[in-house]
Amino acid sequence: MELPNFYHGDYKKIAIVPIIMILISLYFIPQIKMGVEFKGGMLVTLKTQHPIDTDALARAIAKNGIEGASIKQYQLPIGNEVEIEAELDPKVSQADQLKSDFFNNVDDVSKLEAEASQQASNYTSQSDINSAKAKYATARASLDATANQLFEIAGSNTRAEMYPNTDSLRKLVSDANTKVSGGYNDRMTNAISSVASYDSISIQSISATLSEKFIEQALTVVIISAIFTAIVVFFIFRTFIPSLAVMVGAASDITIALGAMGLLGVQFTLASFAALMVLIAYSLDTDILLTTRVIKRTEGHAADRAFDAMNTGITMSVTAFIAFAVLFVLSVMTNISTYHEISTVALAGLIGDIFATWGINAVFVLWYAEKKEKEKGEIEKRGLSTIYK
Fold it and tell me: Which of 167, 192, 219 is the last residue of a domain?
């Protein structure tokens, strides 16, 4: 049974459903939880032969000074898997921040140290020598204070002032930070070992500093992608409205996907972020397909061209949907969180793309095409009137 072309008639009503979906998505977006990569913390994955007592494990973890740990257990066809997610100890985060501050400044201090020595060896004026030494002393005192704070957290009696060469401090600061983070990891593994035996263990620790860098890089990627996409789209169509329609369609698709993440409890991780980037590319593909068919071509009515583009686009979407549905089933069977996050986000985004492209973008493009055709008809009509006169 062939579907009727609903772009004939009052097609603007088609946008009601996707607009409602976007409004609902905006409600759920703030409920998205950040993954370990973006909020910092520790993620421990265990492979065991048999299920373990998660309540006993939670008590053992809390007894070792690790609070707020969440535990998930999955029964797999080839064994059992346990995921433990916990916030980093404040001391671990503070130590990492101090290490970052130290290495951000140590090169500048080393340069000042070299300049002070060079001034003395070049027999420059005493005032220049004193000035160079004063700058180095001030910078070195600040660097030593940072290092000493880290040494105190690590429980070390070492003092930075004992080492006149900054190169010696580099290794000491790294070792102190490793001692702090390693001690926290040891507390976690000791708590696990006291309750359960495991075949393998994976510990992923992301500091607050590193998670901030992940967020900055993610935002940079999104901003740069949006800028270049806007430039390319505008270069293709050379007019504002079609270019705006393509960008609105892509933004609507991502908004619906993000809303689904908040509704379904999918965390914002590097895997889900990668899926969102794929959705942007796919959304642009279908949006440009529609806009090219309706704007660039002239045969038939604009509504017929839009409906023809929709048939092609829906076929593409169904093919992609089946592929990601298979990945989703695989994620359920194997409980691989990366597969689950990618497939869930992709499936939600593909559904959103159908409504956003053929419900919102199509309305924009058809309105623009009909407006241009009307203007063209009026111009031709005026031209014929002039000829007859």
Answer: 167
Do 276 and 366 fall into the same domain?
yes
Please give the biggest Cα pair distance in the chain.
Answer: 103
Could you tell me the end-to-end alpha-carbon distance of the chain, in angstroms, rounded to an integer? 52
Helices (DSSP H) in 40-159: which residue ranges? 54-63, 90-121, 126-153
Residues 299 and 228 in one domain: yes
Task: Give how many domains the chain has, as a whole number.
Answer: 2
CA distances from 123 to 119, 133, 310 (A): 7, 14, 80
The answer to whether the beta carbons of residues 83 and 269 sit under 8 Å apart is no
User: Do 317 and 349 meet the contact criterion of CB atoms below 8 Å apart?
Assistant: no
Please tell me whether residues 368 and 306 are part of one structural domain: yes
Strands annotated E in 50-192:
70-76, 79-86
Domain region containing 297: 11-36+209-380
Q: With 70 as the cut, is the pLDDT of residue 380 above it?
A: no
Q: How far is Cα 227 from Cα 274, in angstroms, rounded to an integer? A: 18
Higher pLDDT, 225 or 343: 343
Query: Which tens digits make up the pLDDT trace of 261-316?
Result: 999 989 888 889 889 988 888 888 888 888 888 887 777 788 888 889 898 999 99
DSSP structure string for 335-357: --HHHHHHHHHHHHHHHHHHHII
Q: Is residue 261 part of a domain?
A: yes
Report DSSP state, residue 299: S
For 39-51, letters b (16+ CB in 10 Å) and e give bbbbbbbbebeee
Residues near 200 by beta carbon (within 8 Å), at least 6 away in sequence: 46, 47
Asked whether residue 20 is domain-assigned, the answer is yes
Same structural domain, 239 and 161 = no
90 assigned to some structural domain: no
Could you report the per-residue pLDDT of 70-126, keeping only the tens digit for each? 888 887 777 788 888 887 777 888 888 888 889 888 888 888 877 777 765 565 667
Q: Are residues 24 and 113 in the same domain?
A: no
Q: Which helix (H) or strand (E) holds 166?
A: helix 166-193
State pTM to two decimals: 0.74
